[in-house]
TrEMBL record:
<feature type="domain" description="Serine acetyltransferase N-terminal">
    <location>
        <begin position="14"/>
        <end position="118"/>
    </location>
</feature>
<dbReference type="InterPro" id="IPR053376">
    <property type="entry name" value="Serine_acetyltransferase"/>
</dbReference>
<comment type="pathway">
    <text>Amino-acid biosynthesis; L-cysteine biosynthesis; L-cysteine from L-serine: step 1/2.</text>
</comment>
<dbReference type="InterPro" id="IPR018357">
    <property type="entry name" value="Hexapep_transf_CS"/>
</dbReference>
<dbReference type="Pfam" id="PF06426">
    <property type="entry name" value="SATase_N"/>
</dbReference>
<keyword id="KW-0677">Repeat</keyword>
<keyword id="KW-0808">Transferase</keyword>
<dbReference type="InterPro" id="IPR005881">
    <property type="entry name" value="Ser_O-AcTrfase"/>
</dbReference>
<dbReference type="GO" id="GO:0006535">
    <property type="term" value="P:cysteine biosynthetic process from serine"/>
</dbReference>
<comment type="similarity">
    <text>Belongs to the transferase hexapeptide repeat family.</text>
</comment>
<keyword id="KW-0028">Amino-acid biosynthesis</keyword>
<dbReference type="InterPro" id="IPR011004">
    <property type="entry name" value="Trimer_LpxA-like_sf"/>
</dbReference>
<dbReference type="InterPro" id="IPR010493">
    <property type="entry name" value="Ser_AcTrfase_N"/>
</dbReference>
<dbReference type="InterPro" id="IPR045304">
    <property type="entry name" value="LbH_SAT"/>
</dbReference>
<protein>
    <recommendedName>
        <fullName>Serine acetyltransferase</fullName>
        <ecNumber>2.3.1.30</ecNumber>
    </recommendedName>
</protein>
<dbReference type="InterPro" id="IPR001451">
    <property type="entry name" value="Hexapep"/>
</dbReference>
<keyword id="KW-0012">Acyltransferase</keyword>
Length: 269
């Protein structure tokens, strides 16, 4: 067993750490042993564990767990980048969320992480031309997690969505790498136009709770949007915006606001 674990750690350190944490968690809380074995320890890879977890969460009387699991397995096998994005997302949650103390937690308990991984399956289906199935995934993610992400939206890796309730991300939205956002964020349109109508969020952006970013506007890399703001115009890189409507109130305050998660507006910042 030790040799096997050493080999896994060499080829997939994220999964190896999750396995170690899962075994420790079973010892700490035996009543969760069944859940942890079924969700983690019975699986040979993170991708297989995610397939199990996603299908269990999204299954309903309309679509069986088995069918959804086969779809997830197909997506992970066809596009290894989906699994690599999941690993980056786990690391992002662990690094940025002070309530996350183990890599195991997002996989088992955090709906923001689980919703993003479900979206990634729907996004893959969308680009396979399986639009109705991708809409089904979107519907179930909204019903189960309270998060509505259109499957055509483009979302990068290293995403952390804290608390995650009432997130809305529209069809033509783009979210870069290493973005952090809190609950009740909307990346929405401003009317009934059917073309490119949603925001383009750069890399390393921090979006505070309740912020609304509306229209086909660009939010520059490493910028910061204060909680409760309504952003209707483009934001240059490395700036902080706040207010309704939002205006530039200073610099972002650091090189990587999405990493520091500092949402305090300091004088002159």
């Amino acid at each position: 067993m030790a040799r096997t674990q050493t080999h896994i750690a060499e080829v997939d350190p994220i999964w190896a750490r999750i396995l170690d944490e899962a075994e420790a968690a079973v010892g700490d809380e035996p009543l969760l042993g069944g859940l942890i074995h079924q969700s983690v320890l019975h699986h040979p890879s993170l991708e297989r564990a995610l397939s199990y977890r996603i299908s269990l969460k999204l299954a309903s009387g309309e679509m069986s767990e088995q069918i959804l699991r086969e779809i997830c397995d197909e997506a992970y096998a066809a596009d290894p980048a989906i699994g690599q994005s999941a690993r980056a997302d786990i690391s992002a949650v662990y690094d940025r969320d002070p309530a996350c103390h183990r890599f195991l937690q997002p996989l088992l308990f955090f709906k923001g992480f689980q919703a993003i991984q479900s979206y990634r399956i729907g996004h893959w289906l969308w680009h396979q031309g399986r639009r109705d199935m991708s809409y089904f995934i979107q519907m179930r993610v909204s019903e189960v997690f309270g998060i509505d992400i259109h499957p055509a939206a483009r979302i990068g890796k290293g995403i952390m969505i804290d608390h995650a309730h009432s997130i809305v991300i529209g069809e033509t939205a783009v979210v870069g790498d290493n973005v952090s956002m809190l609950h009740s964020v909307t990346l929405g349109g401003t009317g009934k136009e059917e073309q490119d109508r949603h925001p383009k969020i750069g890399d390393g952006v921090l979006i505070g709770a309740g912020a609304k970013v509306l229209g086909n506007i660009r939010i520059g890399n490493c910028s910061r949007i204060a909680a409760g703001s309504v952003v209707l115009s483009e934001v240059p890189p490395c700036k902080t915006v706040a207010g309704v409507p939002a205006r530039i109130v200073g610099e972002a305050g650091c090189d990587q606001p999405s990493m520091s998660m500092d949402q305090i507006l300091k004088s002159g910042a």
